[in-house]
From TrEMBL:
Residues 2-229 form the ABC transporter domain. The keyword Transmembrane does not apply. SUPFAM superfamilies: P-loop containing nucleoside triphosphate hydrolases. Belongs to the ABC transporter superfamily. Keywords: ATP-binding, Nodulation, Nucleotide-binding, Transport. GO terms for molecular function: ATP binding; ATP hydrolysis activity. It comes from Taishania pollutisoli. This is ABC transporter ATP-binding protein. SMART domains: AAA. InterPro entries: AAA+_ATPase (IPR003593), ABC_transporter-like_ATP-bd (IPR003439), ABC_transporter-like_CS (IPR017871), ABC_transporter_ATP-binding (IPR050763), P-loop_NTPase (IPR027417).
Length: 308
């Protein structure tokens, strides 16, 4: 649905993007990851035609992007752009008209979202009367009023408490299920794991990684398994042999332990269970996959060290 092809951009000889290519499919949530200053926001602004690339093209459904395509894009920038002296209703009408909606359509759609979020009494409030989180919710509503096919959100959870973060997350999942394409730029790695289908990681203006979240975690796993058991830690350790290495141990209560074990050689999870059964009472056992935060740090931190 969205294809970014060999995009490069410099500002005053500072390379912001260097031959970046990536793509988001119809009906998926695509995570755009990277540390501050990596080039994510520049790429988002290029997709929205706020700035033009030095090289490369952006395609929407296979066609080179034009300003006409902007009618089908919803964009919520990291820098919030609400006019503080306007009421919520007037602001929604203003932005809705810019996207080609009639005043009547905007009013109907605004009422739908205000009712859905149970905030109907905000309609006549001025933006300056709202808290940061409330204003953020209004900006999200204004972003989706025209029912865009492509939704681009830059740090959408900034300013939200956990309840409202969950609310927006569920709305994004619902939109994906309706066939919308969502590009999500965020530092919230937990939400990436929960809702993103695929991700790309940009650092120092280059794309370093792209793929399905599950595939990336699978590729970078390290043979770690966790065992939660009741019993004696000495009995657990004695049951192991040289084919297994205890990485770390938690002791939540007197006789309850959670131990992470790393496989050595050709040993398998079955082998691990066989040596433990009968020695301790196993309550749960699972493979430990690296989190997206682990993966992010493992890729970015060495690059930061090299740059020093």
């Amino acid at each position: 649905m969205l294809s970014v092809e060999h995009i490069s951009k410099s500002f005053f000889r500072k390379q912001a993007l260097d031959d970046v290519s990536l793509g988001a499919e119809k009906g998926e949530i695509f995570g755009l990851l990277g540390p501050n200053g990596a080039g994510k926001t520049t790429l988002i602004r290029i997709i929205n035609r706020i700035v033009e690339p030095d090289n490369g093209v952006v395609r929407i459904n296979g066609a080179i992007m034009t300003r006409k395509h902007l009618e089908h894009i919803g964009y919520m920038p990291e820098e919030r752009g609400l006019y503080k002296s306007m009421t919520v209703e007037d602001h929604a009408v203003f932005l809705g008209r810019l996207r080609g909606l009639s005043k009547q359509d905007v009013t109907a759609k605004l009422n739908y979202w205000l009712d859905k979020f149970e905030i109907g009494d905000w309609k006549k409030k001025r933006i300056e009367e709202l808290s940061k989180g409330m204003a953020q919710k209004v900006q999200f509503i204004c972003t989706v009023l025209h029912e865009p096919e492509l939704l681009i959100l830059d740090e959408p959870y900034s300013g939200f408490d956990p309840i409202n973060t969950e609310l927006i997350k569920n709305e994004l999942i619902h939109m994906r299920n309706q066939g919308k394409t969502i590009v999500l730029s965020t530092h919230n790695m937990k939400s990436v794991e929960e809702i993103c289908d695929r991700v790309a990681l940009i650092h120092h203006s280059k794309k370093l990684l792209e793929g399905r979240v599950a595939d990336i975690q699978e590729e970078r796993k390290e043979g770690l398994y966790a065992i939660r058991f009741r019993g004696n830690m000495i009995a657990f350790a004695n049951a192991l042999w040289s084919g297994f290495e205890v990485v770390d141990t938690e002791n939540p209560s007197d006789n309850l332990f959670i131990v992470r074990v790393k496989m050595r050689g050709e040993n398998t999870f079955d082998d691990l269970l066989k040596v433990l059964i009968g020695q301790v009472k196993i309550e749960a056992a699972w493979e430990v996959l690296p989190t997206m935060q682990d993966i992010f740090i493992s890729i970015v931190q060495p690059k930061l060290t090299e740059a020093l």
